[in-house]
Each structure stands twice: as C-alpha cells, then as structure tokens.
Amino acid sequence: MALIRSSSPHLHNAGSTPKIMRLLLIAALPGIAAMTFFFGWGTLIQIGWAMLLALGFEAAVMKLRRRPVAFYLRDSSALVTALLLGLALPPFSPWWLTLVGVFVAIVIAKHLYGGLGNNPFNPAMVAYALLLVSFPVDMTRWTAPFVLHADDGWQVLGLIDTFKVIFGALDHSAIDAFTSATPLDELRHRGGLTTEEAFRESRVLADGVGAWHAVAAAYFMGGVFLLYRKVFTWHTPLAMLGSLAAISTLFYLFAPDNFADPFFHLTMGATMLGAFFIATDPVTAATSNRGKLYYGAGIGVLVYVIRTWGSYPDAVAFAVLLMNLAAPFIDQYTQPRTYGHAKPKRGLKEDA
Amino acid sequence: MGHVFAFHGGIHPPENKRQSTRKPIRQAPLPQHLVLPLAQHLGAPAEPLVKPGDRVLKGQLIASAAGRVSAALHAPTSGVISSIGPYPVPHASGMEGTCIMLEADGEERWIEHQGLADFRRMPKSELIDFIRNSGIAGMGGAGFPTDVKLHLGEDHIVNTLIINAAECEPYITADDMLMRERAEDIVAGIEVIAHLLEPSHILIGTEDNKPQAVRALEKALKGCKLNIDIRVVPTKYPSGGEKQLIKLLTDVEVPSGRIPADVGIVCQNVGTAYAIARAVRHGEPLISRIVTLTGDALGQPQNFETLIGTPYQLLLEASRVSDRKLYRLVVGGPMMGFAVDNDQIPVIKTTNCLIASTYDEMPPAPPAQECIRCGLCEQVCPAELLPQQLYWFAKGRELDKAKHHNLFDCIECGACSYVCSSYIPLVQYYRNAKAEIRTEEAEQRKAEHARQRFEARQARLEAEKAEKEARRKARAEEAARNQAKKKDQSEAVAAAPSGGVGDLKALKTAAAVARTKLKKAQKAVDSARESGSGDLAALESELQQAQQKADAAQQALDAAERGDAQAAGQPDLKQLKTAAAVARTKLKQAEKALKNAEDKGQDGVEALRATVQQLTAKAEAAQQAYETAEKGESAGGADTAKVAELKADMDAARGKVEKAQKALDDAIASGSPAAEKMKAGVEKLQGKYEDARKAWEAAAGTAQPGASPAKLAELKADMHAAGAKVEKAQKALDDAIASGSPAAEKMKAGVAKLQGKYNEAHKAWLDAGGEAQAPTQTEKPDLKALKQQVSIMRTKLKKAEKALEEGEGSEAEVQELRQRHDAAKAELDGAEQARIAEAAAAGVDLKQLQIDAALARAAVTKAERALGKAGDDDREALRQALQEANLKAEELNQTLSRFE
Ligand code: SF4
Ligand code: SF4
C-alpha cells in the first residue's frame, strides 16, 4: 500500500477542454449541413481541408515547441479554429487561400502568442480579416445558393468538380454560373436604389435570401444546443444579437429607405455564426458575466457600424477583433462583487 | 419551513453518501496506543499536565488550555502515559506535532464525573468555563474552540443562532448519522448554546439529501420550547460553508474580513452541540467523536464512534480495508480534505471522515493545460471571485493584483478546481499565493522593524564615535597643554591658539553630531511609542545612551573651550622674556667689552661705559616689563577656571560652616559641654569660609570688573530677603518677649545673627556696586535686570500684602515695599521708553518687532509640535518649515536684541 499525498480537491468533474471542443464541433453540424445543402460541397471540402492543415500545423508547431504532440492535438482546439475558418471562407475559395488562412490562424495568431489560452485575438478571425484585406476578390466571390440556378430540385456543382475547382484543376470561369455576390454585398452596392427597390431588383435579394435565413437558423440551433450544454453562458450571444437588433431597428425606423431591417441584419452574413461560435470563444472574450454583456453588445454595435458605413461587406471578423482588443480592459472594470464586499472592485490594483 | 435563499455558484459532485449510512453508528475498537496531539484545535496548543509514567483515568484532564483561544485535552481511556514527543499529526503537509502517547490498560475506568444538575441556574461564565474545561472545539472542520464563540453573547447582539447540519461535502455522513440516532442530545446541546447566546431565532440548516435526519430532528424538537426552525436547503456544494449557509438561511452576507457575530449571527456545528450536551448532561469531556469510514477500498463502509487518538489503521482494518485497492487516503471530504501517506496518524477532534479510495475512484489529476478562460470556474465560485484571473495573477506572481481581486475572500472550497476544463489545480495556486503574500507582509514588517533598529544602532554608533573622537581630542589637547606647560611657557602660547582652534571646531562638530543623533533617537522612540511597536525598551535605552554621549561631547567641548580661553587669555610673555634675555646678553657683552677696554686701557672707554649704562637701563626695563606681565598673568589673568575653583572652595567652606553651625545648635540645645569647643570650631570654619569668599570675590572681581547687573540684582534680592528675615525674626522676638517666653533669649541671639547676615548681604551688594549703580542711569540700562528687579519687587509686595491681610506684616512695611516696587517699575518703564525712543530713532517699531518676534517664536513652537506628531512622510517638509521658522525667529530676536 503506497498512499499518495495530494492537494484538495480530490475529485474532478468529467468536463474538460477537449470535451468542450468536441461539443462545439457537434453544435456546428446543422450549420454545416445547411451550408452544404444550399451552397454545395465547397463548404465541406473547405472544412476538411482546413482541418487537415490545422492538425498539420499544430503538430509541427508542437514539435518545434518540444511539447507532446499527441496530448495537445487531443484538445481539438485547432479543429475548432479550422471549422470556423472553413465555414467563413467562400465555398469555392482556392486551396492556397485556405492554406494561408490556416497558417495565419494556427501558427501566427495562436502559437506565436503563446498557444491556446494566451492568444489575445480569435485565430480564425485574424486569418479571415487578413485574407479579406489581402485577397478581396477571392474572398468576395461567394457561391450562389442552388435556388438561384436550379428551377426544380436540388442541383449543385458535383463533388468531384468542386474538388477540381478548389484545387485549381478547373478554371474558375467554369463555375461562374454558380457564383454570385452575397446579399450583404448586393445591398451595399445597390447604387441609388432604396432598400425596398434593391430587394425587388436583385435576384439574390429577392429569391436567394431564404438560403441565408436557413443557414442562420441552423447556426442558431447549434448555439442553443451549446447553451443548453452550458458550454458558454447566454450573456455574449444575447448581448450581441440584442444590440445589433436594437441599433438596426433604430435606424430602420428612422429611415427605412436607407437601412436594412433588423431581421436582415440578424440573419445575413456571419451574424449567427459570430454570435454563437466566434464571439463566445472564451479565450479572447471578457470573463465575467457583466463583462460578457459589454463585450457582446460592443460586437453587435460594431457589426452594424462597419456593415453600414465601412468599406467591407461583412463585419463580424473586424468587430470581434476590435472587441478582443477591448476585452482585458472590460475585465478590469467588470469584476463581480465578491461575497461580503459592498461593491465590486475596479482596475488592477488598489489605487487604480 | 421558511424561505431559503441562494448563493452564487456551487457544484454538484456525486454525493457518495449512501455507502456509509447503511449501518448504524458502531463503537470503534479500543486502540492499544493512543496518540493525542496537543494542537487539535485552532489556537495555542494545550499544555500537558502529565508526565510519562503517569497513570490516568478515562476522562481525566491531561493537558490544559493555554490562553484565550485554546482547548483542553482529556484522556480518552484509562491507561499509562508512555511518552510525550513529536509524532505525525493530521495535516496536509504531513508534519509532526507534539503528542501525548497513552497506553490503554483496557479497563476503561472512568474518572468521577457528573453532569450539571441545572445549567440554567448557573452563572453563564461558569457554564462557559465548564464547557471550556470539557475541551470542546468546533467539530465541523476548523476546530475553533467553542467556548470562545459562546462568549460572543457578551459583546455582540446575537439575533440568530445557526446550527450547521448541511454536511455538504460528498462522502461524509457523520453528522447525518448523528442526527438520525442522537437527535435528542443535539437538541439538548442547542438548548445550552441558546441559553448562553440568547438568540431570538435558531435555524438548523441541512441539505435535502438527509430526510431521515430531518425527521429525527423534528421528532426531537417536539416539546422543545425554543424558537427553532429546520431549514432544508437544496443539496449543493458548498452550502455547508459557514458564509454560504448564512447567505442561504438569512440572505445576509458576512462582510469581508469580519465574523458572523458582527452581523448578529453565530454558527455552531451539530457535532459541537452534541458534544456540549454530553458534557453538560453527563459530565463527559470531549474524548470521542463520530468518524465516517468510506471509500471503495473498504469492504464495510460505516460510521464509528471513535476515541480521539485512535490511529487510522485500526479504523480502516475494522472496516475491512483492502490494501491492494487502497490508493488514496483522504482525511475529511474529497473537496477540502487532505490526503495522507501514513495510516498511523490519529483521529483528532476535527476528524469527521476517512475516505479510503481506489485508483478509479480518485484518479490522479491529468496534467494541467493552459487556462482557456472558459469561465466555468467563475460560474461556480461561491465567493463570486474570478478564479481564472486569480490563477493568472498567482501564476505570474502578480500578487498585489491577486490581492486586489479579493484573493483573501477565497474560501478554498475547491469548486473551481473541480470544474476547471484544463485540470488546473487552482486552489493550490491560491494557497501558495496566499502564503506568499502572508510571508511577504511578515517580511515587510520585519524589514521595517530591522530598519528602525538599524537606524537607532547607527545613531548610537555614531554618537559613540563622536564621543571617542571628542575624548581623543580632549586627551590630545590635554597632552599638548601639559607639554606646553612643561616646556617654555612662551612656546605654549604660540602653539595653543593654532592647535586649539582646530580642535575646538572638531569638538563642536562632534557635539552637534551627538545632538542630532540624540534627536533622531528621541524621534525613533516617539514613533515607536506612537505605533506601539515592540522593542521600545531597547530604543529607550539607546536614547539614554545617546543622551549620555551628547552630554559627554558637550562637556568635552566646554572643557576644550575653557582651556582655549585660558590659553588665549595669556599675554605674550614669551616675547617679553626673550627681549629681557636679549637685553641681558647685550648688557653682559657690553660690560665685558668695557672691562677689556678698561684693562687694556684702550680708547673709547668712555663711550663704552655710556653704552653699558644705556644697556643696563634697557635690560632693567625689559625685565620689569616681563615681571609685570607675569604678575598680571597670575593675578588679574581672568582665569575663570580658577574663579570657579575658588567658588567651589567657598561653597564647600560654607557647607562645612553650616554643618558645624547645625551641630553646634544641636549641642547647645542639648546642653552639651562640648558646645564651647564647637563654637570655636565653627568660628574657625566661619573664618575659613570668609577667607575663601574673599579670595573668590577678589578673583571674581578682577575677572569681571564691576559685577554684572544681574548679579547685582541677585545680591540685592539676597539682601532684601535677609532684611525680611530679620524683620520677621525681630517681630517673633518681640512677641516672645511680650509673652515672657523663656526662648526669648535664644531668639534674640538668632535675630542678631540674622541682622548680621543682612548687613553682610547689604555690604556685598554695596561692594558689588549696587548703590553706586542703581541710581545712576547707565548709558544703556540692563532691561533684563530691571525687569527682574521689578518682578522680585512685585513678588515681595504681594507677599507682604498677603501677610498684612492675614494680620501679620506691618502696614509700613507694605507701604515701603510698594514704594520700592513702584520706583523699580518706573525705572524699568523709563528704560523701556528710552529704548523705544532709541528704536524709533533707528526707524524701527519696537512694539511691532516684539510682536513679530513673539509670533515667530510661536511659529517655531507650533512647527516643532507638528513635527513631533507628524508621520514619516511629512516629516521632511515640516522639518524644513521648522528650520525656516527658526531662522526667522532668530533674525527677529537679533534685531530686537539690538535695541534691548
Ligand atoms: S476555491 Fe476559492 S476561487 Fe475556487 S471556487 Fe472556491 S472560493 Fe472560489
Ligand atoms: S475553469 Fe479552468 S480553464 Fe476554465 S477559465 Fe477557469 S481556470 Fe481557466
């Protein structure tokens, strides 16, 4: 009998980081399915390719950092990053675009900052923003939902052809029929049309928008599942969606001709993906519940501002990165009131 | 059942309580060797009352409580004390503590004991003492001596008494079983506690996973007249934490850093209530407790009524432990207990549970990963902290930030570690950080202490050095002086001024340094006294030393100065002597030449003779000059030292005279035949005294031609005093004669003597030039002296007036005094007027100047006082202000003194 001496507590909850990551992967399944259904195989191929790359880079970096490779690969955080990036990239993005993106996300945004837990910015969003700035053409060539080019039944570019397109075996002109701008793009480049006119004139806006609605609904489902499993608290998503809804309602009521309605904002682009899968990334968010409210609300407002007045079509990535930057500051000023204290503390030190 | 509130966070670990509640509480086997640690409670360890070899009975007091927060210890069974020494005790660190070893004799013979007939009729303090002597300490975990908490009723208003029966930790069922089986005694114990604390409300808080216990309690409570409520809270860890239970039951939070009694609440554990009941009802001290034995490595998990001091091993064996399966032995609960690696450690008063776990049951924690800030820990923290931030700060050793994030409000419940996604042993980090902060603070205190001591020591050393230096200087000077004396005196004159001045300077510096150190030491003492920190005695002794050094330095300086003055006071004798010698030599030469010339009959004899004559005259003149100079040196040389010496002689002589006079008086009074002889002796002594006095007066006279006005005033005052005495004596004599008293004769002599004294004083005053000086207005009258005189007059006048009122003195006397006073006052006023006029002539408003000076002085005093009171920070600034004020005051004083 060799007794051991150890520090309390002697029990541990079964929950763990790898488990959380796996839950995230599961929760993304409806979204992936919806994307595939409406936009073809591209999304699946992107996710698979990105995950492969992510595991490769992760393993390589772990080797370089002399850490046990297998142990760290198991935490699945690299897979989550790859998943988010794969979902965010246009389904027909060329392979090298994904490669650059995953490299930036895993090697630069994550490990150069000290690895999981120490990265101040959401790796997937860093990569996305960088790609958007560097390769705007590739990043805005979105796939058209099948409802736009198929009159009857489900008709998307074949799996093999999609592979060929992505890995350069097939010229991009071959898929021109399958591409279009996103609704957000359409709306911002509508010229002098009012919102209502734009919705009537543009095919994407008139007929295709349903696809995006469906995808948003799928992400929402996944998010609710995660909430139910207590992977994160309601604070961030609710604050983000709430503030986005509030500000867009305000402007829509004020000038419905110039601004899109709140439902459009909530369902288009990466809003739902951002609210439940990106903004909730705990590593880069604010920590306290109150802090999360501020953090989420900040993202919502920034999304609207950048979408409406900025020069980039979607804004979730930039909004998240900007709020990542603010998170430590928010943390300092949103400490909870500790038991037995009259009021919460502020700042980092006594005199702050 | 009453409303139950909620606290933030909390977790739901698997309860694992069923295993050990299947069997009733069983008596544990009697161990052969019992190990009884002296520190089973919080506070000072008990003091053993037995020694090895002593035979003790069951329940006998073997160690007494030492101090306010401590608990007594009793023998759990009868037997022999085998030894007292260090032995492993239940502690997370596996450390050893002093224990009393008891060899059981197996007879279990009780000491005589008896419960209290009616505790309600006893004075409360006696009842509390009785509980204290029963060695009862909190049985819930911390082991806080119970009697201390029972005293709380005295200085706190206790509204609510909370009986903690939550037992929220998984596995443990000791309290549960106790309530199920012995609810009666628990209620009896609560009655005792309630009697002592007089709460308006009693709440028993338990979790909803103990329905049987609740039922048993409810049954026992029937017929109890106290206002007791059982509140069942949802099972959640850590609802049994004192602060959490208070929040759950009353929605009140105990302010950070305070105790529950500060908000009118006292918590006691059910086990404690039971122990109190055993003591009060049956007179049984705390010698046993219920211990849960559980864990997958046991064949028969159950609760034991266990004697304190029973080694774990015996209990494990009684529960059929499987050595093969046993992996971890946890004392206490799985959340807050500690694992031990030694099964010989004994059960103590706070041991509520032993978990013999298998590997699968409590596997080692997986390697910790980076915190992903998932926030789970924050969601469960019952103290509402940010565990992930605390972890970040603790890991990065940013301790002040950790402190700012309320690290010290962490109750180390382990909930955060339990849920941490990355398996980070958070609690361990917090414990280390807390310990580090505590040591750091202790070190800071120590360093501050050391700094103060160092400074005091430094001051002392410097003062010592200065003193040594001063002594060395003084010695060197002495040596130089001696040498100078031995050598040609004229040489000394040349050497002294140059050497003396330099030495003086050094001495002055030394004295100043010593004074500074003294002040510093004084300040250190003051601040120490203010802050109440220890070592005051040491500081004070240091201060005294500094004072001595300063005095010594000052003395050395004074002595040197005096010596210097002496040296400087010597006229240039050397030159004169040399001149005389030269003249003599020349004369001799001339004489010789003359003689030669005369012998040889040379020409020019006449001329030579003239020369010789001239030279002779010259030599004589030189000699004379030298001699007068020398005489002047010894006679009128203004040798203050000599004057002082003379004065001392005189004083000694006077002392002798007085003594002799007294002896004589005694002798006369007793009619001794030696009186005559003594009288002669006294007269002789008186003569000697007179001589000494004359010598002194002569010396002083030459030293200060014309006594100082102050001196004169003194003399005058003396004279007047003597006059008054004479008058009083005369009056007494008159009275005596009138009444025909036999003492009149003697009194007459006394009066005569006094009269003589008065005359003497008068003469002294006259000699000093009083009469001559007083009426004639000097160029600049000494205002101070005048003022003094006026005040003396005033005093005298008042005295006389009072005497008159009392019917003693004579009207005429008062009148005369008044006149004198008025005259003096007029004189003073005149002088002052003159001075003001003079000042006005110089364009200065004297009055204003005076006021300014007074203000400046007041400012100085104020600054000084502020400095004395001020903390270290302001001290520099204040010191500067003081210096400025000082400067100003001095300036003004100087200006003022120009006109005074
Ligand atoms: S151990 Fe401290 S920080 Fe962790 S949950 Fe308990 S009180 Fe909070
Ligand atoms: S539970 Fe662990 S990993 Fe999660 S935030 Fe707290 S410390 Fe970090």
Secondary structure layout plus pairing:
The complex is a heterodimer of chains A (352) and B (900).
Chain A (H helix, E strand, L loop, with lengths): L16 H11 L1 H11 L2 H23 L4 H5 L3 H12 L6 H17 L11 H12 L1 H5 L1 E2 L2 H4 L9 H8 L12 E2 L2 H6 L6 H7 L1 H26 L6 H20 L7 H6 L3 H8 L10 H21 L6 H18 L19
Antiparallel strand pairs in A: 1-2
Chain B lengths: L25 E2 L5 E5 L9 E2 L6 E2 L4 E4 L8 E2 L4 E10 L7 E9 L19 H10 L12 H5 L1 H4 L4 E6 L8 H24 L3 E7 L3 H11 L6 E6 L8 H9 L14 E5 H13 L5 E7 L7 E6 L4 H7 L9 E4 L6 E3 L12 E5 L18 H5 L6 H9 L3 H6 L10 H5 L6 H61 L2 H43 L4 H34 L3 H28 L4 H31 L4 H30 L5 H29 L5 H31 L4 H24 L2 H4 L9 H23 L5 H31 L4 H24 L2 H28 L1
Parallel strand pairs in B: 1-14, 9-10, 9-12, 10-11, 13-17
Antiparallel strand pairs in B: 2-8, 3-5, 4-7, 5-6, 7-8, 13-14, 15-16, 15-17
The structure holds iron/sulfur cluster (2 copies).
Judged by helices, strands and strand pairing, the structural class of chain A is mainly alpha
Rough outline of chain B: elongated
Estimate the helix proportion of chain A, in percent.
Answer: 55-70%
Low-confidence stretches of chain A: none
Numbering strands along the chain, what is their spatial order in the largest sheet of chain B? 1-14-13-17-15-16
Radius of gyration of chain B, in Å, reads: 48 Å
Class of secondary structure makeup of chain B = alpha/beta
What's the number of structural domains of chain A? 2
Q: For the terminal residues of chain B, how far apart are their CA atoms?
A: 92 Å
Radius of gyration of chain A: 22 Å
- The helix tally of chain A amounts to 18
Strand tally of chain B, please? 17
Family (chain A): Belongs to the NqrB/RnfD family.
Function (chain A): Part of a membrane-bound complex that couples electron transfer with translocation of ions across the membrane.
InterPro entries (chain A): NqrB/RnfD, RnfD_bac
Transmembrane segments (chain A): 20-41, 95-113, 125-144, 209-228, 237-256, 262-280, 292-309
